[in-house]
Design a protein that fits this description.
With 161 residues, the protein is mainly beta. It is 7% helix and 34% strand. The radius of gyration is 18 Å and the shape is elongated. The relative contact order is 0.20.
């Protein structure tokens, strides 16, 4: 005897689901406030994907931020040798939040969903800063230096911009 089944599927807009904002992952301390598997969403503000010697990832920044000067709205996403995003893409990423070389990042990425395009305004940062730890609040964010700067070491500049 044959059985008949009726299946109904509803499409889910993953970009509209809840996520952990980048500033909550970053927190206000020197290390990540949240570690382990997380899903976050933001605008690609720096695309350094591709094989080594590139950074093999991209910088993602919360489109709105939390308005708290003590927390960073940006994070680095390590994406291996993949080329998945472009500047200005709004993407949703699931991966492992962790510290790597004193920088909070997402690694072991399991999914990247494109949610359209957006932009963020760079944050002005004026040098000198009051302490060595002061710049932590801008980690991974799009910044602008409204003053004349001088390059004293060019190897890393040429390699990573």
């Amino acid at each position: 005897m044959a059985a008949n089944y009726l299946f109904s599927f509803t499409a889910v807009n993953v970009c509209a689901l809840t996520y952990t904002p980048i500033y909550q992952i970053q927190g206000s301390g020197a290390a990540a406030a949240i570690t382990g598997t997380v899903t976050t969403q933001g605008v690609v503000v720096g695309d350094y994907e591709g094989a080594s010697p590139a950074l093999r990832g991209f910088y993602l920044q919360d489109a709105n931020g939390d308005g708290n000067d003590a927390t960073s709205d940006g994070i680095f996403v390590f994406n291996g040798n993949n080329n998945s995003v472009n500047l200005g893409d709004m993407v949703r990423v699931t991966g492992t939040a962790e510290e790597f070389q004193d920088q909070t990042q997402l690694s072991s990425v399991t999914s990247i969903a494109n949610c359209g395009t957006a932009s963020v305004t760079p944050v002005d940062v004026t040098l000198p800063v009051p302490s060595a730890t002061y710049l932590e609040r801008y980690e991974g964010m799009l910044v602008r230096f409204p003053q004349t700067l001088y390059v004293t070491e060019h190897f890393q500049l040429g390699r990573f911009g």
